[in-house]
Design a protein that fits this description.
- The complex is a heterodimer of chains A (about 575) and B (about 260).
- Chain A is an alpha/beta fold.
- Helices cover about 20% and strands about 20% of the residues of chain A.
- In chain A, strands 1, 2, 3, 9, 10, 11, 12, 22 and 23 form a nine-stranded mixed beta sheet that branches. A six-stranded antiparallel beta sheet of chain A has the order 6-15-16-17-14-20.
- In chain A, helix 1 runs parallel beside helix 7 and helix 5 crosses helix 11.
- The longest helix of chain A has 21 residues.
- Chain A starts with a strand and ends in a 5-residue tail after the last helix.
- Chain B folds into two domains: about 80 residues, no CATH class; about 140 residues, no CATH class.
- With about 260 residues, chain B is mostly helical.
- The chains are: A alpha/beta (about 575), B mainly alpha (about 260).
- At the A-B interface, helix 2, strand 5, strand 8, helix 9 and strand 18 of A face helix 3, helix 9, helix 10 and helix 11 of B.
- The structure holds flavin-adenine dinucleotide (FAD) and iron/sulfur cluster.
Chain lengths: ~575, ~260
């Protein structure tokens, strides 16, 4: 029998950005919140020895231990899903702050087009533009409704940036000025302008200057140390839940964090959640935490998995297209890029910050005409300078062998002589891309793993090559002597890192028939259960997701507060 | 060149230790009480006397880590020879052998990486599609044991000599045959083993010298990589600058 603890107002499962934001907002309003996090406690002092590429970038020091839990993957329903035994395509965060500790901090707002994508696509191109199998949906919310929440997230995190001429309207400027511009960024800016594009400096959570946020939290400026993504920030400069929202929640005295607490089930009675069941990983004890409101913020895979193992909500059926839990899994098309080799110049590629870059949106969303194109949406195109660490950055011109004398000579020669421009392609949902429980493989507790069924489609192949060609054009304009770029996308494979931008599975919308949560991220059929994260995205945009995840978390917090007062389905 | 280096150290506090960085640099916060690490960056007392000796002086010191934790001496020699072919000494600088790559791999195999301790190793095992990644039941230690034995066998069959005794050209042929799966093995994939060997060669060439590879930071120096510096705020807006490398050891003194 599990030990039963006294009931609390709210239990939050997983303490990353989504969980941390919700905890800070609810505790400020006087609610008692317990945060259950399966990983360990974290603090800035842990990062004295953080500039270690092998330990953090290649041995995945900060990531989830896959021996205990992973996912399985298959390209389609005809083949057997097999476990992701080692990391590759994406990385799973674990520990206080989740992936928010070791992210880059590239912080965009999705476009107005994204939130009403189906309506706007049909308006401009007609119904036939959307392939039959593409389960494209509006989000049940507009950019205008999202705007105040974007603003709130950006002010909390201190995002450094400048106006993007092709994005949605802003109610206010970025709270801090843009990051410093390196010569590489200047080259990109000039080239993009010559090509009549609209470059802007990448919105960054790395902090361009010392900043005090509306919660009274002060943080130091980024030092461009070049060890950012996959690493924790030793200066507390990078916005991370551990140095922003979590201390705010703690200060109220109403937030109790329990680390090493692995949630295994959401408990329910009728159509209400009653709490969660978790295992204390340090003692092995099973514990029941009752709560009036349950919030799942345990990232895409565990959010979906917990609902399915707890038998909550209607599981998605890919044959009929009915049901919602697991529906519209999407990803990102990251391979459409180009690398330039510069014979006459070396660059400080070793220096940089996770979100140091310049971007154009001329080929993102519906900012360009798709009438003659075989895809919808598009992607942002950026140069980023995040620090070329030497084990993982050995670019050589195409045709160079992968080892031996010539490889060594070229990899050393070009170590500081390459610049890459990359497209971050959007990812549209398809009927046969989804998440469900694996029938064979289990986690350390014997619970089924999450199974991904996903592959790239014609939409993605077209988009990737289109973006690669645009990137190539820019790199040439920047003066590269030689440019290599993607020629063909190929199938989705789980072995090379692309991005940790997994989306969908518990999607939001205006219709309970086709979505799992409403626009407060409240489950349509379980009113005291909220599920929050990129898991809510009905499709993925041509940007990194977390700006939009943060905004949704603030929106959910508003919803939870009003639900705690009046109950019922929020509208 | 040497003078330039000295000059640079004077001008750029970020190339000295963490404590000196905090003391000397413009890393000031305008009197703001910023939480977390900054308070801890400043040591309670001045610890100059506790600072480790400058790294250059230590280059010739005995290295007690040049011993084996996992490989047999025979395995070690094959790895040393094979990784040197993958990353050979040339005009740019030392190759895998002088960078300590074989010691690096040996030491790594002795730890969690060698045992695939943080990877999913549960049954059932099925041969998957390429897009599904590694699906074998063997851990890296076992793969190295088998792979090195098979390299030796293949070398004996093909040339009647052990791998270490072969000419460089013949060693390359053997490696290429592994890379291209021209060698048919039953328990492991020849190309999979080659990939592992190549990947760990680059790791050993460029890791922090803490791990017994990248000896004397020579891998970094070769490609003008400054290693672990505190900050690049002073140079981020500028053109290329060569900064003498620094390893993690330099960070220990200020808060031990
Ligand atoms: C290397 C890297 C770079 C990135 N860079 C960017 C970027 O530049 N811009 C951007 O927008 N995004 C970026 N991302 C993505 C970004 O980090 C995530 O979108 C974001 O952190 C997700 O926040 P979250 O709170 O939804 O989930 P997470 O941060 O994943 O937090 C979920 C938490 O839940 C815990 N948990 C899971 N299951 C359970 C359970 N059963 N019981 C208890 N706890 C549980 C996990 O341990 C984790 O701590 C990056 C990701 C990575 C890995
Ligand atoms: S690049 Fe900036 S934000 Fe990132 S870890 Fe270094 S100092 Fe922190």
């Amino acid at each position: 029998m599990a030990k039963k603890l006294p009931k609390v107002d709210v239990v939050v499962v997983g303490v990353g950005w989504a969980g941390g934001i919700i905890a800070s907002e609810l505790t400020k309003k006087g609610l008692n919140v317990v945060g259950l996090e399966k990983g360990k406690e974290r603090k800035t002092e842990d990062y004295f020895m953080v500039h270690d590429e092998l330990r953090y970038a290649l041995r995945y020091e900060m990531m989830q231990d896959l021996s205990k839990e992973t996912i399985t993957f298959r390209s389609n329903e005809k083949i057997r899903a097999l476990p992701m035994r080692q990391y590759g395509s994406f990385l799973l965060g674990e520990g206080l702050g989740g992936s928010g500790v070791h992210w880059n901090g590239q912080t965009y707002r999705f476009l107005p087009y994204d939130f009403e994508i189906r309506t706007k696509t049909i308006e401009r191109y007609g119904k036939n533009k959307i392939p039959a199998e593409m389960t494209l949906q509006d989000w049940g919310i507009t950019y205008e409704e999202m705007e105040p929440y974007f603003d709130k997230f950006e002010k909390m995190a201190g995002i450094s940036g400048e106006e993007n001429p092709l994005a949605g309207k802003r109610s206010d400027q970025y709270p801090t000025p843009p990051m410093k511009k390196s010569p590489q960024l200047n080259m990109f800016e000039e080239a993009a302008k010559k090509l009549n594009y609209h470059p802007y400096i990448l919105p960054s959570a790395n902090l361009s200057e010392t900043y005090t946020n509306p919660d009274g939290i002060s943080r130091a400026a980024c030092q461009y140390c070049g060890f950012c993504e996959r690493f924790g920030c030793e200066y507390g400069a990078k916005a991370d839940p551990v140095v922003t929202v979590i201390p705010v929640a703690k200060k109220t005295g109403k937030f109790e964090i329990r680390t090493h607490s692995y949630v295994r089930r959401v408990l329910k009675s009728g159509n209400k959640a009653t709490g969660v069941l978790y295992t204390d990983l340090t003692t092995g004890e099973e514990i029941e935490q009752p709560a009036d409101i349950v919030v799942l913020t345990s990232y895409v895979f565990n959010n979906v998995r917990l609902l399915l193992t707890s038998q909550i909500g209607r599981p998605y059926n890919p044959q009929t297209g009915t049901g919602v839990i697991g529906k519209n899994y999407a990803y990102q098309v990251m391979k459409g890029n180009a690398t330039g080799f510069f014979e006459k110049e070396e660059f400080n590629n070793f220096a940089g910050a996770g979100a140091l870059g310049m971007t154009i949106d001329d080929f993102n969303g519906d900012n360009f005409d798709h009438s003659d194109l075989k895809f919808i949406h598009g992607g942002s195109i950026s140069i980023t300078q995040t620090g070329h660490r030497p084990i993982q950055n050995n670019k050589v011109p195409e045709g160079t062998p992968t080892w031996g004398k010539e490889f060594k000579a070229n990899s050393v020669k070009y170590a500081n002589r390459t610049l890459s421009v990359g497209g971050q392609g959007s990812s549209m949902p398809f009927k046969h891309h989804y998440l469900d429980l694996d029938p064979t493989y289990k986690d350390a507790f014997g619970d089924p793993l999450m199974r991904i069924t996903f592959d790239f489609e014609e939409q993605d192949r077209q988009l990737a090559v289109f973006l690669a060609n645009k990137c190539s054009e820019i790199v040439k304009e920047m003066g590269a002597d030689h440019v290599d770029s993607l020629k063909e996308l190929g199938p989705y494979e789980i072995t090379t890192y692309q991005s940790t931008h997994n989306t969908g599975g518990v999607i939001m919308g205006g219709d309970p028939d086709t979505s799992a949560v409403n626009n407060y991220l409240q489950m349509w059929d379980f009113e005291n259960l909220f599920v929050v994260g990129a898991v809510n995205f009905p499709h993925n945009s041509g940007y990194n997701p977390t700006g939009t995840v943060g905004a949704l978390a603030y929106r959910a917090a508003d919803g939870i507060i009003s639900y705690s007062q009046k109950g019922g389905i929020l509208a | 060149m040497a003078d330039e280096t000295k000059q640079h150290e004077k001008e750029n506090p970020e190339s000295s230790s963490r404590r000196k960085f905090i003391k000397n640099s413009g890393f000031v916060l305008g009197g703001l009480a910023v939480g977390g690490i900054l308070g801890n960056l400043l040591p309670a007392k001045d610890q100059d006397s506790n600072d480790p000796p400058p790294q250059e002086e230590n280059e010739t010191a005995e290295s007690f880590t040049m011993a084996l934790m996992y490989f047999t001496p025979e395995q070690y020699k094959i790895v040393e020879a094979a990784t040197e072919r993958i990353f050979p000494a040339d005009d740019n600088g030392p190759g895998a052998k002088d960078l300590g790559v074989a010691f690096f791999i040996d030491h790594q195999l002795n730890g969690s990486w060698g045992l695939n301790a943080r990877e999913y190793m549960q049954a059932p095992f099925f041969k998957g599609e390429n897009v599904q990644g590694y699906q074998g039941r063997l851990n890296r230690r076992e793969i190295f044991d088998i792979g090195l034995r098979e390299m030796q066998n293949y070398s004996m069959t093909k040339y009647n000599k052990g791998f270490v005794e072969l000419s460089e050209e013949d060693q390359d042929t053997i490696l290429k045959d592994f890379e291209e799966d021209n060698v048919k093995l039953t328990t492991i994939s020849a190309s999979g083993f080659f990939k592992l060997l190549r990947g760990s060669t680059l790791e050993g060439a460029y890791c922090d010298p803490l791990y017994s590879g990248n000896r004397n930071m020579a891998g970094w120096k070769m490609r003008k990589y400054p290693g672990s510096q505190m900050a690049y705020t002073e140079i981020i807006e500028k053109g290329f600058e060569e900064i003498p490398p620094q390893s993690l050891r330099s960070h220990l003194g200020s808060h031990s």
